[in-house]
Amino acid sequence: KELTSVRLLNSLQYPDGPCDIALVKIPKHLSLLEDQLYRMRRSLHPDTHIIGAGMARHIHTSTLDLFERIVGPTRTSLARKKARLIFCQPNPAIDPGDSPYPTYYTFENTAYRLANQAGLFSREKLDNGTRLLLEHIPRSDRKQTIIDLGCGNGVIGMVATERNPAAAVTFVDESFLAVASAEENFRAVFSDGRWAAFRTIDCLNGIPSGSADLILTNPPFHRDRAVGDAVAWQMFSEAGSVLKPGGTLMVVGNRHLGYHAKLKRLFGNCRTMSTDTKFVVLESVR
Ligand SMILES: C[S@@+](CC[C@H](N)C(=O)[O-])C[C@H]1O[C@@H](n2cnc3c(N)ncnc32)[C@H](O)[C@@H]1O
After folding, report:
1. DSSP conformation class of 124
2. Using a 6 Å cutoff on CB, does residue 203 contact ligand 1?
3. Which residues form the RlmG N-terminal domain (predicted)?
4. Whose CA is nearest to atom 8 of ligand 1?
5. Do 159 and 201 lie in a common domain?
């Protein structure tokens, strides 16, 4: 068959079925794969060929078990150049039940019940770094613009919304699943007309310069397996132009990541707000 068109779907959309060949790039997080297999199931028929591809180090017995449990009989190829293929044939008799996603946890000492789509950062409980940052989110009655950068399930932006009744908060993340979770969580708590924006973008791409009073972030500290700070660096430097003069960037991170030096270099100032054995909360003013 000739391929006549390609339609791109984001991770929240279901492909229209039925499909004859399904190609899956095996994600690093098992929960993401589980979510994708549940979504994909709807468009499979008994003769669909499913071919997964991934780095051998991301393919474990648990990966194959997921295919077997949700879709059907599964086998793998030998590894070639550190990569492997997975072949799976749907078995219509399998009933894996409903997808477990999103999962929920109750945010300590509040009535917030936080939804977390598959693959989200710290989706079973509040991250300790995030908790430390929450202690320092300022309170104010003035009209202002706040950004939760790399919002995940949106807990930082929600606390900022609560403490700043006149603020407009924008939630941004590169992950559609994260932004969907943040929006669901915000709407469940602030159903009474509080305004917020939800953007799936890379860092602060497209947010006007000089538009924000406060940017709050717990930046991603690794991508894939290589521990790197390129995204954090990009977030900090873009925050430098998106903030209004006098606006504040507040960051939490592992102490060993050395964000202090980076922020000092970019902003010319960096104040330590709080520190514990593992994390540090820093503030730079544009
Ligand atoms: C350490 S998590 C923090 C999540 C949430 N704010 C919290 O504290 O629980 C970092 C977040 O940054 C997001 N992220 C990673 N790379 C990004 C990028 N290039 N642009 C925007 N967000 C990104 C991730 O999807 C993740 O949700």
Report:
1. S
2. yes
3. 4-91
4. 130
5. yes
